[in-house]
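Dear all,

This email documents one entry for the complex benchmark we are building for the journal club exercise. For each entry we list the sequence lines for every component of the assembly. Then comes the predicted three-dimensional structure of the complex as a C-alpha cell string, followed by one or two observations. Please use this as the template for your own entries, and keep the labels exactly as they appear.
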Amino acid sequence: RKEVEQDPGPFNVPEGATVAFNCTYSNSASQSFFWYRQDCRKEPKLLMSVYSSGNEDGRFTAQLNRASQYISLLIRDSKLSDSATYLCAVKTVGGGADGLTFGKGTHLIIQP
Amino acid sequence: DGGITQSPKYLFRKEGQNVTLSCEQNLNHDAMYWYRQDPGQGLRLIYYSQIVNDFQKGDIAEGYSVSREKKESFPLTVTSAQKNPTAFYLCASRDQGASYNEQFFGPGTRLTVL
C-alpha cells in the first residue's frame, strides 16, 4: 500500500464553486500534515499546515481525520488562480528518515 | 530577503559526468533536504541534514552525494552512478525550533542528461 495517496484528477471546477479533495496516509504514527500548492514547473509552496482540530485560512479549510487516516482540503469560492496541483505531505516521527512523504498531487483546473 | 536559492535553474549533463547542484539558505535553518520529482510523481527524499557536518540518506540516495560544511549550504552531487538522473531537484529547509515542522522549498534545478 502506498504511504500517501491522492486522487490525481484532474478536477475541473467552475469558477466560484466549492471543491474538496482528500489525501490518505498509511502510517498511523504520522504526526504532521501539510498541503502544498505547486504551479506548473515551479517549486511546491506551503499552503497550509493541518492541525488536529482543523484550521481555516480565508477560503481554504483543512481537516484531519486520524481515525480514518486522511486529511482534506476544501476551497470555497474558487478562483481561476487556484488552478494548480495540490500536494499533501506527511511527517512521521521516529523510526525512519527525517523529511516529508508526499502524495503525487491532485490537479485542479478552475474554469471560467 | 530571506529565502532559499538554488542554482543553476537548468542543467544539462552528458552521460558519465558528475554534476553538483547548489542550495543556499539565509533563513538560519538547521535542517536541509534534497528531493527529486519526476513527471506526475510525488517528491522523493534523497538526503537530509539536521546539523552541520552531518547528513543522512533518504529513500533514494544511491548515485548521489552531499556535504554540509556550512549551515547555509547543502550541495548535491549527482554522480555517474545515478542511472536515471533526469528530474526536477528541489532543496528545502526547516527551522527545527518551529512547532510544526514546515519545510520551505527553493525554486529547483531541472537536470537533463543528454
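Observations: Chain B touches chain A at residues 31, 33, 35, 40-45, 48, 50, 56-59, 88, 90, 100-108, 110 (CB under 8 Å). The first strand of chain B starts at residue 4 and ends at 7.
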